[in-house]
Automatic annotation (TrEMBL):
Ranges of residues in domain PAS: 131-201
Natural source organism: Acetoanaerobium noterae
Keywords of the record: Coiled coil, Membrane, Transmembrane, Transmembrane helix
CDD domains: EAL, GGDEF, PAS
Domain PAC: 205-257
Residues spanning the membrane: 23-41, 61-79
Name of the protein this chain belongs to: PAS domain S-box-containing protein/diguanylate cyclase (GGDEF) domain-containing protein
Pfam families assigned to the protein according to its UniProt record, in alphabetical order: EAL, GGDEF, PAS_9
InterPro entries in the record: Cyclic-di-GMP_PDE-like, EAL_dom, EAL_sf, GGDEF_dom, Nucleotide_cyclase, PAS, PAS-assoc_C, PAS-like_dom_sf
Domain of life: Bacteria
Entry GO MF terms: cyclic-guanylate-specific phosphodiesterase activity
Coiled-coil intervals: 86-131
GGDEF domain sequence ranges: 285-416
Presence of the UniProt keyword Chloroplast in the record: no
Length: 671
């Protein structure tokens, strides 16, 4: 209560007391006392001074008048005095009443203001409660793990998502050190690392760690952490918001494996190889590259199928892991592997080559398949041979090519002279291209004779070129590698058909033309031969195409289909160089050949080697039983010819009988 309130209260008490004091009895008492005193003393006075009865009566009358007048005056002043007091009190009361009215109005206004403030406070409290509920709902229903904790690691609170993800109940973790429960042993240091950063920066974003769930699972978590002051408890706490990255990390690992790992072997792939090599180059780390390529692997694939080939590659990958760490082995492509070792010592390199050769040569068996693998290896070093990735790749290519071209099953280290060999090869490819453009090729013809009658039965068209400074066999190999062989085949076919029409059609003679593997694989071969046959009006029965086993096995089913279509057009089919590479009797029984040419490597040995003679005899007998004619290639000695007559070989070809002839000489020979 303020001072004004106190004065009004005192005024009310004081005025009440005054009213009590100014009661009418006070005036009456005074009047009675004065009356009694007047009667008492006035009568004595009259007795003294009245000397007669008349005087006495007169004085009594004067005494009564005087009494009335005096008492009237006294009453007047007493009443006037009381009236002034009453008026003053009335005025005071009126003033105080006005003050009370004003105060009452203030009280009413204060009450209204208080009510408004109470309503505002209630509204604010409701809003605060709603906001708290909203915050609690966010906290509890968030799909993010939320943990509040002190800098000592003690957990203060967790939300529902945390318990759902990690499996811990509130009593399992609140009040305990989170790092003792959640962090795997090898990541305990993360707590000290995190708190150090928080004390320094007050927040740590995108912080990753492993988290151990109650059931033993380990989650990959990403946390955003911030220090917040809590004024209620006068404490600084840490709020951590965590996202489960486990599935994302697994997907990233799968994507990484798909992008950087070979699915078949599990080794890293070409992309990973280039990344790792560049990293080593940037660090100036010396290393050696071993570039492995399986010899004749495509024959395994083509004869027994890609599934069989894949099974071997998986087995070979396991073999490599017996001597090399997985992180150092890469599958380059197909049957090629690259190995990196941070060792450039020549003695150690030689040991490694021997180890690779030893693990490779073991026979591989799968169901009824037996495969005797061998491997060619190209080797290059950093930084001795090259100082960048492209240089190293080029060097190991050249070294591997040298190993392959030198006889296979070899290991060859890069030498700067290999560049000259590559340049020479490129020059030869360019020369072949120019020869095709300039029509520099020509055909010669080697007769094939009947061994019994000595008569020319057929001729084989052979390509020659004066502008080439290498033998024709090497040219064919280069053309097969470069892909130019397809153009050469088309040129030979067209030229041979032209000569058949213009020069040889009148003779009863068969013209044999070689087709490469590239031609057999070409999807437009049949259309090309059909069209050119019509163009030159050639009788297909006078044309025979010679196919090697090598040209068939790239895709045996496709080869059968192509040969079937060639036969349907009317062409004859000869199996050339039989006995080399992957000879298979299955070909003879399933592919409609007309003749079989026995390779020169057998004919060379039939005079001196009984085994070779027996093999040739068996080939001839088998061919006859299958309805095939036989042609012996490379006859150079009379003794060979005599043995072939005895073995009942049908036809022969070789320098003893005739060398390849120019067209003019051939026509003379035929005539």
């Amino acid at each position: 209560m303020d001072k004004k309130d106190y004065d009004i209260s005192n005024l009310a008490i004081s005025e009440a007391d005054t009213i009590k004091e100014k009661s009418p009895w006070k005036t009456i008492v005074i009047y009675m006392i004065l009356g009694f005193l007047w009667i008492l003393f006035s009568d004595r006075f009259v007795d003294i001074f009245a000397d007669s009865h008349e005087t006495y009566k007169l004085m009594q009358s004067y005494k009564g008048v005087f009494y009335v007048v005096v008492t009237a005056v006294i009453l007047f002043y007493l009443i006037k005095y009381d009236y002034s007091k009453i008026m003053k009190l009335t005025n005071d009361v009126s003033e105080k009443n006005e003050e009370l009215v004003s105060f009452s109005e203030e009280l009413i206004a204060m009450d209204e203001d208080l009510q408004q403030k109470i309503e505002s406070l209630n509204t604010a409290m409701k809003s605060i409660n709603e906001q708290k509920q909203f915050t609690d709902d966010i906290f509890q229903n968030s799909n993010t793990c939320i943990v509040t904790w002190g800098l000592d690691g003690e957990v203060l609170d967790i939300n529902n998502h945390f318990t759902e993800l990690m499996g811990y109940d509130r009593q399992d973790i609140i009040g305990k050190k989170w790092y003792e429960i959640l962090l795997p042993e090898e990541q305990k240091y993360k707590y000290y690392e995190l708190t150090s950063k928080l004390e320094s920066d007050r927040k740590v974003q995108n912080y990753e760690n492993k988290a151990l769930a109650k059931d033993g699972r380990i989650f990959d978590m990403l946390w955003n952490n911030a220090m917040i002051y809590n004024p209620q408890d006068d404490l600084t706490i840490v709020v951590s918001f965590g996202i489960d990255l486990t599935m994302q990390k697994q997907n990233e690992r799968r994507i990484y494996e798909l992008a950087y790992n070979d699915k078949l072997t599990g080794f890293k792939n070409l992309i990973a190889f280039e990344n790792d090599i560049n990293s080593k180059i940037n660090k100036k780390t010396s290393f050696t590259l071993y570039y492995l390529d399986m010899d004749n692997f495509k024959h395994l694939n083509e004869i027994h199928g890609h599934k069989c080939g894949d099974m071997f590659l998986k087995d070979y990958a396991s073999r490599l892991l017996t001597i090399f760490d997985r992180t150092n082995v890469y599958r380059w492509c197909g049957d090629e592997f690259v190995i990196i070792e941070e060792d450039t010592n020549d003695i150690n390199i030689t040991k490694r080559i021997d180890e690779i050769a030893l693990l490779t040569k073991n026979i591989w068996k799968y169901k009824n398949v037996e495969y005797y693998p061998s491997v060619s290896i190209g080797i290059t070093k950093f930084p001795e041979d090259a100082e960048n990735l492209e240089g190293l790749k080029k060097n190991m290519d050249m070294a591997l090519y040298k190993a392959k071209s030198s006889g296979k099953s070899l290991a060859v280290a890069y030498h700067s002279d290999f560049q000259k060999d590559i340049e020479k090869k490129l020059d030869l490819e360019n020369t072949i291209t120019q020869a095709l453009i300039n029509e520099s090729f020509r055909l010669v013809f080697q007769p094939i004779y009947s061994i019994k009658t000595g008569k020319i039965i057929s001729i084989e068209a052979l390509i020659r070129c004066k502008s080439l400074n290498i033998n024709i066999g090497e040219m064919i190999n280069i053309a097969e590698e470069s892909g130019q062989i397809l153009q050469i085949d088309r040129w030979v076919v067209k030229k041979a058909f032209e000569i058949m029409k213009n020069e040889l059609d009148k003779y009863d003679i068969l013209l044999s033309i070689n087709l490469s593997a590239k031609s057999i694989a070409s999807p437009d071969l049949i259309d090309y031969l059909s069209n050119i046959t019509k163009e030159y009006n050639i009788n297909p029965i006078k044309i025979e195409f010679e196919l090697t086993e090598h040209s068939l096995i790239f895709d045996i089913d496709w080869s059968k289909e192509v040969i079937g279509k060639l036969k349907h057009l009317g062409f004859g089919i000869a199996l050339d160089d039989f006995g080399t590479r992957y000879s298979s009797l299955n070909y003879l029984s399933t592919i409609p050949f007309d003749s079989l040419k026995i390779d020169k490597s057998y004919i060379d040995k039939i005079v001196d080697t009984d085994k070779s003679r027996v093999i040739v005899e068996q080939i001839i007998d088998l061919s006859h039983n299958l309805g095939l004619t036989t042609v012996a290639e490379g006859i150079e000695e009379n003794e060979q010819l005599d043995i072939l007559k005895k073995l009942d070989c049908d036809y022969g070809q070789g320098y003893l009988l005739d060398k390849p002839l120019e067209l003019e000489d051939l026509i003379i020979k035929i005539n």
